[in-house]
Amino acid sequence: MRKALSGFRLILPIVIGLAFAPELAAQPAEPSAAGLWQKLEKNKSVGWFLVVDHDGIFEGAFAKLFLEPGDPPNPVCSKCTDDRKDAPWLGLSFIRDMKRDGLKYENGNVLDPRDGNIYKAKMTLSADGQTLTMRGYIGFSLLGKDEVWTRLPDTAMAQVDPIIIAKYLPAQAPAIKPPPASKAPAAAKKTTVPAPVPAK
SS3 of 197, please? Predict the structure, then answer.
């Protein structure tokens, strides 16, 4: 009888676990910061940002620029001092090393390409996954500034430059077929020039 009871005690947690497994599986997965985001100012888009997940480390890049009249057409990070020196803003990795902890992303950094300064940064995702608050700061988080971005629909990805998609989301990039090899012009047939006949 004791053996039967001890066996039952071992099996009971497994049975209870299996009973609740469908409910646990039915719970929606927590949203991720990965995706395409936009920053609005006065109801006008001023930038799109692509956030990607590299096995739990998140990176963000400029996906689309909305330049003002008089802005240089292809701005570069001329004041950057690291590997991003003179890199074009479009496609530039400006958020690095964000580590996920639920809806919070911390211990990262953000680059301001206008002056080349790099600040500590953290991000907070809303529970519905539709807004992302980016905070860059010096020293303490209290000494910083928030930007709130809104998630763009997946269909907006079609408007992102394919080069950026290929760089940051290579699995999603369409297979780029190389242009058909053009035939080289046929080489002119060699003509043999008869050797001059020696004078007698």
Answer: coil
pLDDT tens-digit map of 69-95: 999 889 999 999 999 999 999 999 999
Pick the closest to residue 110 from 49, 157, 153, 196 (CA basis). 49
Cβ-based neighbours of 12, under 8 Å, separated by 6 or more = none
d(CA 198, CA 61): 76
Neighbour count for residue 188 (Cβ, 10 Å): 6
Distances (CA, A) of 70 to 74, 96, 165: 12, 30, 28
Q: Percent of the chain beyond pLDDT 90?
A: 62
Residue 173: closest CA among 52, 46, 88: 52
Radius of gyration of the chain (CA): 29
Three-state SS string over 21-39 comes to: HHHHHHCCCCCCCCEEEEE
Q: Is the pTM of this model over 0.85?
A: no
Q: Are 105 and 124 in contact (CB under 8 A)?
A: yes
Residues 124 and 144: their CA atoms lie apart, in Å, by 14
Of 31, 21, 53, 193, nearest to 128 by C-alpha is: 31
Give the per-residue pLDDT at 130.
98
Are residues 76 and 83 in contact, defined by beta-carbon separation less than 8 angstroms?
no
Angle at 155 between CA 89 and CA 52, to 5 degrees: 50
